[in-house]
Amino acid sequence: MTTIIRTPGLGRLAAVETRLFLREPLAVFFAIGLPAALLLILGSAIPGFRDPVPELGGLRVVDAQLPGMMVLLSVGTLALSTLPTALVVYRERGVLRRMSTTPVRPAALLAVQLAINAAVAVTATALTLALGHLVLDVPFPRAFLWFTVVVVLGAVAMFAIGLLLAAVSPNSRVVQGVGAAALFPLLFFAGMWLPRELMPDPLRRFSDFTPTGAFGQGLVDTLGGHAPSALHLGVMAGWALVAAAFAVRSFRWQ
Amino acid sequence: MAIITVENLHKTYGTHVAVDDVSFSVDEGEIFGIVGRNGAGKTTTVECVAGLRTPTSGRVTVDADLKQQVGVQLQDCTLPDKIRVGEALALYASFYSRPADWRALLEETGLDPRTAFAKLSGGQRQRLSIALALVGNPRIAILDELTTGLDPQARRDTWESIARMRERGVTVLLISHFMEEIERLCDRVLVVSAGRALAIDTPAGLVVRVSGGQRISFRTSASVDALKDLPDVTSVSRDGDEVVVTGTDDVLTAVVNTLPASQLSALRMERTTLDDAFLALTGHPAS
Tens of pLDDT along A201-238? Predict the structure, then answer.
């Protein structure tokens, strides 16, 4: 880690990679624009979303459920699609191999990509909170520290899964296909289309142990002012550790 | 003074022997070529020199810092589509402790610094690739199949870029299967076939060594097998009625004494080329 931080040209590498990220309008749209737009459109257009719901402890859907899902959508897209696709394309096209002939190790490029995607996830999260507050009158999370813990732990778990996906995918077509095929069921288990409160018991129990089920419930809990459950924190940490360990073992530079 | 020394290099992948006992040395400031057909072990050899692969056995000694002072251009290494020419050069320059002036290199490429990599033609990409291999101000440049897939004009432009490296005093290790390229650029050349080193010499030396410098071509429908046993003949190749024979200064006499003159037509004498030498050494054309 320290050798990566002391890499010569790391600042310029980060600046160039950031510009390259911003030159992909679709990546920016799916990571930042889509979640923010959905929050505003669904939050404004569906009247019931702005009425207190007894089953949600008197909270409105726009208070916790909707912004929680939008944060999850943003992190999930970045972790399972944007990051692994970028890394596999770099490997497939010999960008990592070319870099390995210079004093800069390709691990620095991986670290920079991870940092950029994490920064975009934080930006999307902050934007979701800010827009919700300004437009939909959503209070900022009262359990802010717990909210931060859940975002960080959930993002680490999701990015670890994304790195594992990049490590085992033979080419960019596979990584894109598998990433999309994994993202949709994972969003379903998080409660994107059917809130977890409304899931049948066995389904909700299963969802507790999925990375996105734990992450999504943690976001909804902390946005609603509660502490996350120990089970969900543990599930996220477990996925993070297992996926990261397998990713490190199977990653290939060429 | 040798800057690269390779002794008894072996490299195997599983049961496949890619490089089988190759030895050579490259002097400082030299342009050294490695020729051979696809799969002959050229790329594996230079990748061992560049430190990108570990030899199965044998020794590779490079009198330079592999990361800082060796610039490498590999096959099939591209850049991100949306990176611009100027950005790429400035970025790669920032990786090195004593980089070359990337703006001067940019000027030599003749490329617009604002062009995105995806919009460059094959020849333009190779010029950028050469500039990237030089941007660290290397003592050694390793160039793998630089001109494969380029049109003749782009190939000539690339040769000029390589010739300029000699003026900078950069030692160049060049892989190619274009004999014209080797003949034009290289001081010495290593011929490899099926992982083995067959010869090391100057391009002119190879031609003389293999053929004695004479090449004759003619048309005939008769059998030319008898020519192969003659002491003055080094190689015979036939394509339909077209026959090419190489050999010593007396090869012409040998041919006309063996085949009846009435069966020969369009008889010509030519200078032998490196292509002929390669054919005689390996038993196959280079490309």
Answer: 999 999 999 999 999 999 999 999 999 999 999 999 99
ipTM of the complex: 0.87
**Residue ranges of the domains in chain A?**
2-250
Asked if B67 lies within 8 A of A24 by C-beta distance, the reply is: no
User: Phi-psi category of B21—alpha, beta or left, where left has phi over 0 and alpha has psi -120 to 50?
Assistant: left
Q: Write out the residues of chain B at the interface with chain A, using a CB-CB cutoff of 8 A.
A: 50, 52, 67-68, 70-72, 74, 76-80, 82-83, 87, 90-92, 94-97, 132, 136
pTM recorded for the entire structure = 0.84
By C-alpha distance, the chain B residue nearest A15 is B91
Q: What domains does chain B contain, in order, with CATH numbers? A: 2-204 (3.40.50.300), 214-271 (3.30.70)
Contact state of A103 with B83 under an 8 Å Cβ cutoff: no
Interface touch B68/A103, C-beta < 8 Å: yes
* Amino acid letter, residue B275: D
Tokens of A234: 């543990």
Region B3-32: mean pLDDT is 94
Distance CA A139, CA A133 (A): 6
CB A149 within 8 A of CB A54: no
Angle at B266 between CA B265 and CA B268, to 5 degrees: 125
Q: What values do phi and psi take at B190, rounded to 5?
A: -105, 125
C-beta neighbour count of B246 within 10 angstroms:
26
